[in-house]
Amino acid sequence: MADRYKVPSYFRQKYQLVATVTFTAFFSLVFMLVSIPFSHNVWFELGPSKAFMFTAAFFILGLLIIIFSKRLMYSTRMHDMSYLQYVLWDFAEVIVICLLYTLFSLKGDSLGIIELSNNSFIRIFLNAFIYCFVSLIIPYIIAGMYFAIIDKNNTIRLMNYANVVSDEPILPKDEQKITLFDSSGVLKLSLRLSSLYYIESDDNYIIVWYSDSKGELKKYMLRCRLKTVEESFKGSSLVRCHRKYIVNMDKVKVLRKEKGGYELEIDNDLISTIPVTPTYAENVLDKRLRVIGIIMPQVGAGAQCLIVFGF
To answer: What is the pLDDT of residue 197?
Structure first.
């Protein structure tokens, strides 16, 4: 499945789900309180009455259903969940709560606790659907937009120091630096782009592979999405080549055509070759490469093509 069709992982992180449930519960409660005086289709009541006990019980059970649903979404770790699957999941929550409301209505009417002008199952369910849709889907949309803005503000930033006044000469390779922020917006790492080899995805984290001041290979892990990195570095030498990898093309010395696709060889013997999947092959091949030489083994079974290039 293409990454553009997948739900961003921050929608399913624990603290976002907790915040979404909390906001939804508050929004639903306020909506219920405001709508009671103006509605003739619901039996919600406030104050000392049997109907109020039904109202409180329904609200608590509905909240427990949402908590269980979001907990299940988090625990299953559906990393490949699409937007359609996410929408259907939320829609299923609405259906379940509507069924709960319908059962409460029919039970309460049969016990004489509440009075319904129309006790048709379908009519009650359709009325409940309108209320549930407004009180659940709207806060979901608002929460999703809020977290999307927060995630956007916490992106890894590419900083250009070309206009910084300094008494030290700035070399071309030193002009660009990257600052790495985690998903909470806390600055975690700052390094020169020329020191970065590649970035690897590890669930909701990324691992940054780079060389320190002594030239030694180091790695640093922080909570961030690889998709965020890809969007932040468009137009730079950092290129997405795989579902799990973004490579600094300035550090690539060999592009090798294998039977199953391309491979990138990094300018560091400690780093294994990095695969290029067909989905992202165009990203790599579209870079303006200065071809230094091509080595072609004899044509035949298992023949390979080796392309050595620079920038």
So the answer is: 94
Taking the whole predicted model, whether its pTM rises above 0.70 is answered as: no
Confidence grade of residue 205 (pLDDT, cut at 50, 70, 90): confident
Q: Report the alpha-carbon distance of residue 167 to residue 231 in Å, rounded.
A: 33
Comparing 19 with 81, the larger pLDDT belongs to 19
| DSSP secondary structure of 160-217 | E-TT---SS---GGGSEEEEEE-TTS-EEEEEEGGGEEEEEEETTEEEEEEE-TTS-E
Side chain identity, residue 18: V
For residue 147, what are the CA distances in angstroms to 10, 38, 41, 171? 8, 33, 34, 38
DSSP alpha helix (H) spans, the chain: 14-35, 50-76, 83-111, 121-132, 138-153, 226-232, 278-285
Tell me the average pLDDT of the chain.
78
Structure-token pair, residue 28 = 């639903």
Report how far residue 189's alpha carbon sits from residue 222's, in angstroms, rounded to the nearest whole number: 9
Amino acid letter, residue 211? S
Q: Please report, in angstroms and rounded to a whole number, the separation of the first and last CA atoms in the chain.
A: 32
Residue 79 reports pLDDT greater than 80: no
For residue 95, give both structure tokens.
Answer: 């259906």
295 vs 289: which has the higher pLDDT: 289
Q: How far is CA 253 from the centre of its chain?
A: 32
**Beta-ladder partners of 6:** 82
Yes or no: say if 246 and 208 are a contact pair by the CB < 8 Å rule. no
CA distance 62 to 117: 24
Distance CA 239, CA 234 (A): 8
Locate 155 and state its tokens.
């992106």
Residues 210 and 196 sit within 8 Å (Cβ to Cβ):
yes
Instruction: Report the alpha-carbon distance of residue 160 to residue 194 in Å, rounded.
Output: 13
